Every structure is written in C-alpha cells, then in structure tokens.
Amino acid sequence: MKCEHSNIRDELFHLPDNPRRAFLLAAAASALGAAGLKPGVANAAGSKVQTQAHIVIAGAGAAGLTAAAYLAKALDGAKITLIDARKEHFYQPGFTLVGAGIKPKEYVLSSTAEYLPRGVELIEARVAEFDPDGNKVVTDSGQSIAYDFLIVATGLKLEYGLIEGMEESLIGKEGIGSIYHSPAGAEATWQAMSAFADKGGRGVFLRPATEMKCAGAPLKYTFITEDYLQRRGQRGKAEVVYNSNNKALFSVPIVSEKVRMLFQERGIQINYERVLTAIDPGRRIATFKTPEGSEEQGYDFIHVIPPMRAPEAIRNSPLPWKTGQWVDEGWMEVDKGTLRHVRYPNVFGVGDIAGVAKGKTAASVKWQVPVAVDHLVAEIAGKQSDALYAGYTSCPLITRLGRAMLVEFDYQNNLTPSFPGVIAPLEELWISWVMKTMALKPTYISMLRGRA
Amino acid sequence: MKEFDLLVILAVFQEMLGPLLWLLLAIIVLGTLAFVLLLIRERGVVSRRMVFSQTLSPLGGAFALILMAKVSSSGFTDAGGPVDWLLIALVFSLGLVGSGIILYTIGGWWSILRGNKPA
Ligand SMILES: Cc1cc2nc3c(=O)[nH]c(=O)nc-3n(C[C@H](O)[C@H](O)[C@H](O)COP(=O)(O)OP(=O)(O)OC[C@H]3O[C@@H](n4cnc5c(N)ncnc54)[C@H](O)[C@@H]3O)c2cc1C
Questions:
Q1: Which of A16, A63, A158, B41 has the fewest Cβ atoms within 10 Å of its own Cβ atom?
Q2: In Å, what is the CA distance from A106 to each residue of A89, A186, A187, A221, B94?
C-alpha cells in the first residue's frame, strides 16, 4: 500500500524495473553519503587478534548482530556465541513507513540467520539469568553458558500491560494503533489510521514517561496522520492532539522548539505533562496522569506507545543502575563513553539496553558497537583503546509524506549534522525523506554485516 | 570524527541494488568504452547524430525524475529547500547526459555495424 499521491503517480507512470533504474538509483543515492560515514576504530586497520576467548552476545537484534560481525572480523580463534530466541529479524526503523502505508510489512521482515557471520554460533533461546559474578548466563532451557566477555544487546521490552485496559490484541481495533508493536501491529495501525483519516474526528497522540527507542517516532506519526487528514480533505473535521509526558516535545531543546513551531503551524494541539495510564476501548476514553490529577480524553483514533524498560532477566540481575533515575527501568550501568559495565569490566551493554542519556536508535548502534568492540579487542590484545562514543543519535523526523528533518545530535544536545551546510537539520527536506526511504535500510543491513 | 570510506558506500549500494549493482557498473564501464571507441573510430563527434540525441535526451532526464519519485514514494513536488533543487537538478542531468551518450553511442555503432559510412 502506498500513500495517495504516490498511488496516482504509480498509475500514471507504471514503469518496469530495468538496469536504467538501478543506474538512476545509484546516481541519486550517491548524494546520500551519510550511508558511508563510519566511526574510526583503533583496531580496524590492524590484523586479526589471536585468542581463545569465549564471547557471549545476549540478543541478536541490531546491536547483537553488528557486534558479532565486528568481533568475527577482529578476532581469530575466538568462540563467539549469540543467544536469541527470536528467529525473525525486524528492521524496526521501517515500522514507521509500514504504519504510514508507504511500505508493506514484508519490508521490515527478514531472518536472523541471514546475517549470522561465519563461525559465529547461534543458540535459539532466551537468556533467563545473567550471573556476572559467576561469569555465566543461563538460558530458559536451563543451559548454563560460561563466558570470558559478555555483550548485552537484549534491546528493551514494550510494557503494554502497564497501561490499564490495554492489550496487544487491541492494536488495529477500536481506533487503537501502535506502530511500535511489530510488523503486523504497524500494518494494523495503518489500517486504523487510514480509516480515521477518511472520516476525521479526534486523534490522540502521546509518548511514555520512560526512556524510549526512537523518541522521534511519536512525533513522526502525529505529523503523518495530520498529513493524511489534509490529503483526504478531512482536516477541517478533525482535531489532532499531542500529549507530551513532560514539559518538552523532544529531549534536545532546539529540536523541541522547532517541533513546537511546526505543530502550531499545522494546528496540532499540545498538552504537556500527560502520561497515559488507562484506556477504555469500549467507550473510547483514554486516561492521563497530569500534575493536577487524572484527565479523560475521548478519541476516535489513538496511537499508543507503551512504557519501555529493560527485559525482566536484566532487571532481576546485578547489571542495572543501583542509584539514580534508571533504577526502576533497569537500564544497564555502563560507562557512557566506552559502554563497558561500571562494576563488571568484562561486560558491555550496547543498543537500547545501555543506560546512557541518549542513543536508543539503530543509528546509535552503528557508533556504539565499534567502540565497545574496540575496547574488548584491545583488552584481549593487552592494549588500551581510546575509542569513545559521544552520544550520536539520529532520527529522520518525518514531518509529512515526502519530507523529513535529518535530526542528529549527541550527549550534549548539540546538533551533529553529517552534511553541515548542505542538509540543514532543522529544515523539512525532500532529500532527508529520500534518505529515510531509500538509503537507510541498505545502510542498516550493511551495518548488521559489519560493512558499514 | 567521521571517516569517509568508499568501501562502505559500495556495501550500501550492494545492499540497495543486489546483483543489479554489478549489471549497472558493467553498463557504465562498457558504455563509456563503447562511446570512447566510437569517438576514436569516427575521429571526433558527428554533429548531426549529436543534435539528434540531444533532442531526445530531456526525455531521459524526465524519466530519471519519474523513477526517482517512484522508488522514494515521493516526488520533486515535495522539494522544501535549495539542496532539494540541487538533487532534482542532479537526477535530471544524470538522466539527460546518460541517455544522450547512450543514444549517441547506439546510433553510431548501429550505422557502423550496418556497414554504412559514418554519417
Ligand atoms: C517504531 C520505531 C521506529 C524507529 N525508528 C528509528 C529510526 O528512524 N532510526 C533509528 O536509527 N532507529 C529507529 N528505531 C530504533 C531502533 O530500531 C532500535 O534502537 C534498535 O533496533 C536497537 O537495537 P537493539 O539491538 O538494542 O535492540 P533490538 O533490535 O530490539 O534487538 C534486541 C534483541 O534481543 C532479543 N532479546 C530480548 N531479550 C532477550 C533475552 N533475555 N535473551 C536473549 N535475547 C533477548 C530480542 O529477541 C531481539 O532480537 C525505531 C524503533 C521503532 C520501534
């Protein structure tokens, strides 16, 4: 399924695939150099390091697979074991495009086995217990696996159950959507949103009060829905409301302010300090916690993004932060520069599970994994690494079909544009959309293979 | 902080295009070679054929823009800033120049292979 204007275009210009297309694609995308930027890694140039070490990677998602690929390239003789019960691989940044009706759900689906580097062992199980004091993990089938080094890349858990009345089976029904859930959930959300865009009404958008992956996605989906209402001539009959969990729209102040301006321009109403606590699908009422008590909001369409926290096995282990803001959510206590565990030096945490102030995006994985692997390999080689992760996070913020802002930033809330002076980060541009739809997935897949 | 790496770009394009990448590179290399050989053989540019291929090549440019719109589920009507116009110009010119050269080369070799004197 495609968006309205591209459907028309497709009908008008139905063109067969041919090599010319490939040529043009390549030509067009040569401008997309972001695809070709990679962090410098101290050990990358050197020859393989000999070792007999056993490295266990828990979780074979974006970060786990990338780590396996980098380790397999850097080490000779090491035993590398990936542990993950899920056979499918999800290209999650594509969920937004599936939820927008731009791509089918097959676009985001593949299998872990496709990306498994040669020589890396995959155990199809869930890690049920992390025992960093005993240097071992235990799977749900009771297998105990000892390691010399552990890389934790379990991602995070979506906690729909923490919203009263919310069930995952409701996604796509009763005006409830949630592109975060899964490829099928994103597709069901598109159907619910499209039905809403056909008739108008009250659209309610929100984000959780916890840390979350791709904090731009709640905003993107609000913008996309508003755009569909416009395109289908129902904007006049619709109200679009965005509920922010705190007093800002985005953690980076300059981006937050830009989004506030765009929301105002597009007539999107903003409520601050609203956290979804309950949903009543029968009556179509959502209940939010506010500083003044609870508030009920009616909806015709609601985009639910649940609270997120570390998977249970991590929360029940000694790995999470013991003090500070992340104790309840259970993110791993790692050094923000090296991603090495603060209390267990042979343990690293990369990807969404890392308890660092920024970084829950696939784009961050691309910068985090080479750093963590560099420190690990340096230790095996008896050397020191000075590789540091500066908090790089990126999120092409779609503001309408056909346009996006290429927002990139770091720990200090500085914007870190890949093409300074060429692609303006706070401008709504077609080129940024072209990158999101054409270059990002190939870049992501190259990353999984350790080639980007 | 960032290092530019041709191999990475190649990896990304390979992911994007699959085997088409090699076909595409072959067409570019062989096409250029055929064009250069034609120039040598004909001792320069044949202006009548050049004018002919130049008349048709804007269609190649337009074709390039349409393909780009199709694969990106969007179009040049979405342009929002100067860099977008640059991208549009780039895509159009690649289509224009590419198709111009291809038409010129095919035309040239066609008449040579049919035994005609270079026109
Ligand atoms: C809707 C949406 C939009 C997004 N948009 C963007 C975007 O535009 N740009 C961007 O860069 N990023 C985006 N992201 C974020 C990006 O997808 C994630 O940050 C990235 O996938 C994180 O990688 P990860 O390896 O940490 O987690 P994941 O890729 O989620 O992988 C975690 C893996 O660990 C496994 N696992 C979990 N628990 C255990 C256990 N106990 N034992 C063993 N294995 C376990 C899981 O099965 C899973 O395979 C988006 C995400 C979503 C949901």
A1: A16
A2: 11, 11, 10, 20, 31
